[in-house]
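Entry type: protein chain
Record version: 2
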Amino acid sequence: MPSPLFSPQYLYRRRVAHGHRVFSEPYESHRSTTKSAGMWKLREAYFFLGHLVAKTRTFPSSDPEEFEFFLSAFLSAARSVTFALQAEKKDTYDTWFPEWKAHRSIEDLDFLKAMNAQRVEEVHKKGASVNVALEHIPVTEVRYAGRGHPAYYGFQWSGPPGIEVPWVGLPVHYFKLGESQAEVVATCTRYLDLLDQMIRDFLKVLFYSTFR
């Protein structure tokens, strides 16, 4: 039985260069093969999370606005997951979601509410509540964002015995969640873990409902 996440629709065409001529051939788009719209939005959010991770503990940081641009895209994509699930099967979702929430901890529900508030601030107001602080780490733990051989992706250091590795300060981003602060990448990862579980639980309901 084919996976419920895939369908055989062909929507994209791949351009294949051959000399000076260009041919087109059928190409199955990744979006068309992802039957769940919620799963597609989750994958989109993971894509932007990957960029946030890549911009953490990296030198040079290039454009300092890049992290905030990727964060804005992440918050929008992640929040769209539940909207996409609801659009797939509204009646089923509206019945299932209150029950799903009832089995979540108060901590998880407060966390989801706080992340939605960040998205509202980012999209509709003056931006997410984010602070930036310098975190000092050993220079050998810094990732280099430039191109070249993988052996040189990090910084190397050597010195006489007994001399400690130098430390360097790099910007780290923190959400303001209520009265506390939480590191952005770790918080976004936790957010996607919850959404991932939500999607899997909902898809199970849809799958078993087809046999009733």
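Comment: The helical segments are 30-33, 37-54, 65-88, 90-102, 106-124, 184-209.
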